[in-house]
Known about the structure:
Layout: H1 3-6, H2 17-20, H3 29-50, H4 53-60, H5 62-66, H6 68-75, H7 83-99, H8 101-112, H9 116-122, H10 130-146, H11 149-170, H12 174-198
Helix pairs in contact: 4-10, 6-7, 7-8, 7-10, 8-10, 8-11, 9-11, 10-11, 11-12
Amino acid sequence: MSDNDRRGHRRPAFFSEAALEAHGPAYDPTEAIHAAHETASAIVHAGRAAADPDLTTRLVAIVDDIGLSTLAELWSGRPARSLPGALWRLYVLREWVRRSPEEASREYAAGMRFTAPNHAVAGVAEPPGPAEMGRVIDEILRGVFDGDLGVALERAAAFCRVIAAGRADLSSGEEAAEQAANVLVLGDDLAACARLWRVHTLT
């Protein structure tokens, strides 16, 4: 990961739709759309067809090799309820947890009290410390490539809902409420993507 990719705000891009799309494609829109969907499909299908644990590990950590900005160029401009849009949000979610594990742990622990069913779906071990946050996010991304992609998306959605509940509980003010709402929308979009995947219309 480059120095630029390592630096970032405490609350990175995935909390705001505008921020998610801020790094949108800088080339021809038609080419950008084609490239986004082709690369997303190729990565998912290559990972799932290979059944190779080493490849899965590399795909989970692809941001470490190519940087978040590269994925942003490819995928950030696509709709949330599309395959590239879903992958972009999963990788940004992973980056947030990696960059702010204590914050993620604190917000998740707070949210568990309000949304036990989502905690169960997310599958985070208790107590949900920083290490557990990192492990579950990597598990979710591994599921994209070597498990049930629909289940992986549902787990990510549930994780977001717990975080949203925790953030709303721990913070106050209009900005905090907006951030919690953005995370909740992210969860809803990932859950919708899971439904689309199951009826073979997530492209």
